[in-house]
Amino acid sequence: MDRLVKYTLAHGLIPLVVMEFPGITVGGGFSGTSAESSSFRYGFFDRTIVRVEMVLANGNTVHCSGSEHTDLFHGAAGAMGTLGVVTMLEVQLKPAMSYLQTSYHPVTSVTEAVETMRKFATDPSIDYLDGILFSQNQGAIIVGSLSDVCSDDTPKRTFSKATDSWFYLHVQDTISSHPSTVSTEAIPLAEYLFRYDRGAFWAARWSFDYFKTPFNSLTRRLFDSLMHTRVLYKAQDATPLSASQYIAQDLGLPFSRAEEFIDYTVHTFGIWPLWLCPLKPTPHPTINPFPASGPGASEPLLNIGLWGPAGTKRRDRFVELNRELEDKLVALGGEKALYAHTFYTEDEFWRVYDRGWYDALREKYGATSLPSVYDKVKGQLDAGRSMRDRVLDLRPLGGAYGVLKAIRYRYGSEYRRIRRDAPL
Q: What is the rounded distance in angstroms from the CA atom of residue 241 to the CA atom of residue 238?
């Protein structure tokens, strides 16, 4: 994503929705699920796509848009490549500006956070909106508006250098220092768009806990080269730890049920912080994980990012906790992002998603030979593990192996080429 932003900024333009991890691709954002801090206005990234070129399972190439193969255009969004392979996309852009005037609004309860977020989501003067809950009585709603002007008395802030604070820590420091006032600063636009790259929001902090390493400004600076999302994902993919000990879920619910769901996660997992991101819902039919809550519904939904230790090292208990979470989400009228841990049985999965509509699309476009969405996202329900996974589950073997893979990638030719092609 950072390469696209680099080239559009050179022309004074920016995509309507920018995935906040720079390594997420445009095709991945369309075929998967990508909702970011401008999604309260524009919806998911796929809703900002004008036209798609796809190669079908039979080898034919088709072009899809709002007026051509419309069913495939909307159906392929979020379908994980199970209707065909996306080879080209036309992305909507808008004028870019130099800065994002960013304001941090302190909140002192979950109720206040949800209601403040709901209020701001209808404000036409706001361009970007998300929030962080640090506890049940501390959080911030983060409001951004594009601007080419930065007054001398407005602090300027960056988040990409090793000496910079991680964004979420800066937000917490800001509201702790000014718990009853709104603080505002100017962030260069590219710095804002990828502000969560260092530390992967806050998920990387758990790596310090894993290795029993102090988590402070000195150690974060010392290990900064390994704390960017492209590198962190190499470590994650090398070990089974993230699939057996750490919860990774994005969960969308109606605003009216969000507080009840947060209360459930607090008592079940005790994971903090939580990410809040309001979403403009996608019309039916769709495989998109956060569809509208009813025909014609237009109210935004609230995505809750739940990322942290599951509190168990037992695989069977880990699966059980995820399944309980899925049940609670469905009971409250919500749906999840399918990139995340997914432990529905096949029957349960298709009670949530519209199998009739999806299978008809697969039949129409000759995609029945491809894996289904369920095939691609299903987790391993039983407690059986390979010997390799059992060994890498042992501390510190799994973590050390992941670090070695990350170091090899970080200092290899692929990463150097990426940084050369997309310096922002």
A: 9
d(CA 106, CA 114): 12
The count of C-alpha atoms lying within 13 angstroms of the C-alpha of 321, restricted to the half-sphere facing its C-beta, is: 26
Instruction: Give the span between the Cα atoms of 289 and 335, in whole angstroms.
Output: 5
Q: Which residues contact 155 (CB under 8 A, 6 or more apart)?
A: 185, 186
CA torsion angle 61 64 68 71 (round to 10): 110
**Of residues 264, 334, 274, 279, the one with CA closest to residue 113:** 274
pTM reported for the whole predicted model: 0.94
Question: CA 81, 240, 389: angle at the middle one, nearest 5?
Answer: 120
Instruction: Say if CB 220 and CB 139 are below 8 A apart.
Output: no
Half-sphere exposure of 127 (CA within 13 A, CB side): 20
| Measured distance CA(105)–CA(141) in Å, rounded | 5
Element (H, E) at 174: helix 167-177
- Within 13 Å, how many C-alpha atoms sit on residue 180's CB side? 0
- Tokens 């709104």 belong to 182
Per-residue pLDDT 10s for the chain (424 aa) are: 999 999 999 999 999 999 999 999 999 999 998 999 999 999 999 999 999 999 999 999 999 999 999 999 999 999 999 999 999 999 999 999 999 999 999 999 999 999 999 999 999 999 999 999 999 999 999 999 999 998 889 999 999 999 999 999 999 999 999 999 999 999 999 999 999 999 999 999 999 999 999 999 999 999 999 999 999 999 988 887 777 789 999 999 999 999 999 999 999 999 999 999 999 988 878 887 665 444 335 567 899 999 999 999 888 899 999 999 999 999 998 889 898 878 999 999 999 899 999 999 999 999 999 999 999 998 866 655 678 887 887 888 889 999 999 999 998 888 888 877 766 6
Helix, strand, coil percentages, rounded to 5, for the chain: 40, 20, 40
